């Protein structure tokens, strides 16, 4: 039986009804306290539970697996609607729809899904990705964390850094090396309480979000927790396209939120006997931001519309992420400038939007790596970054 959310992906009326419901819920339950929540580093478990109750976690995960079976376009519309009421709540939607959970839902065994998805979709559990390492960031294939078979178990050794939600996660999707070479890269599932896993002291990003280093010292897990064995690296990276769609969606949403707050401000703030929006310099700043936001939104819509089986193409996703990251930050940064001290103050969400959008120009693939990928498509060839001897 086709779900209401699935039909909404092709039915504008149904989708509009869904978004009206989401907007009403967000205005009533998420907008109050949004500013305080933005400056709270810990994960908002209470909000996660509310989003789970509303069926807003696992939107694009199949109904058979406990999700809503919606299309990617619906999930994008929902995360943007929520972000404009409460940016921090949109981060929870990212974790429950666009992040590592998509890779998990796509490749997990029925037993793995039964063990973890109910809590993840109810907001009681949280999945964090363990990919980056001290010597393996953009060069992900240089990871050193190893998984060695020992009877019915795997023994994991290594270190992971920069993981979103790593401080609060209950489950980690960890990229590991089963042997030498890219062909032996895969992933495993590690529970927070597993013996041999140490979650380090929290560190802070510029946005106020926290992360913790993960130390694996003879961490022993059953082999039944292998998500993707040797040869799984390419499959895992395909899931990054969806993660980047969520990244791009929030960049645009926060850029628009800052834009709207600043537009309201300059329409009423008076200096030198007239409102700020009467000054040409202010008008041009908003005009430039509007063009950038609208252009990026069109590129994001293209990537989503052309997605096959819920997976957008690498090229169109890369273009959309680059455009959305730059447009979102440009709009938020301009909004802060137009609002002066108020925009720079923590009493406004504008400065938070500026800091948050800046981070997405690094997270999920830096702008420089995105430009490399775009250039490869333009010239129809690879441009390897690794040094040759």
UniProtKB/TrEMBL annotation:
Acyl-CoA dehydrogenase/oxidase N-terminal domain span: 16-123
Domain named Acyl-CoA oxidase/dehydrogenase middle: residues: 129-219
Assigned keywords, A-Z: FAD, Flavoprotein, Oxidoreductase
Domain Acyl-CoA dehydrogenase/oxidase C-terminal positions: 232-378
Annotated signal sequence range: none
Identification of the protein by name: Acyl-CoA dehydrogenase
Keyword Oxidoreductase: yes
Cofactor dependence: FAD
Family classification: Belongs to the acyl-CoA dehydrogenase family.
